Amino acid sequence: MLLISCPNCGSRDETEFHYGGQAHVAYPENPNELTDKEWAHFLFYRENTKGIFAERWLHSTGCRQWFNMLRDTVTYDIKTVYPMGTSRPDLTAKAAPESGTASLAADSTTTGTAAPSTSATSITALKGATK
Length: 131
Fold this sequence. Notes:
The chain is mainly beta. It contains one helix and six strands; from the N terminus they run βββαβββ. It has one helix at 36-44, and strands at 3-6, 10-13, 18-22, 52-58, 66-72, 78-83. The strands form two sheets. A four-stranded antiparallel β-sheet has the order 3-4-5-6, with no helix packed on it. Strand 1 (3-6) and strand 2 (10-13) form a beta hairpin.
């Protein structure tokens, strides 16, 4: 499960968001002047990058605002989240500390933290329970 950091609402579970496709795809200036082939290319052809990819996301059950995200399509690691209308950030700069990542822990929750340790907890059997 991904923990996505909405620029307006903070970190939330990925189920609150909807994927919106590739980011930074410019709408044609004069769409009526495009040939059928050019229009089809604009509508259906997108990059299929293995690695860092710029995506659009909608916080559909929260603030209902669109934002962009740089995410590694191999590891699902979210590098940075940035507002619509801004240019793609340079990845040589350090990513924002609120960036979400996929949890790799088998017993993780949606917040990405592992289950509490029971090593210091005393567990006693209930009265009448079998051993």
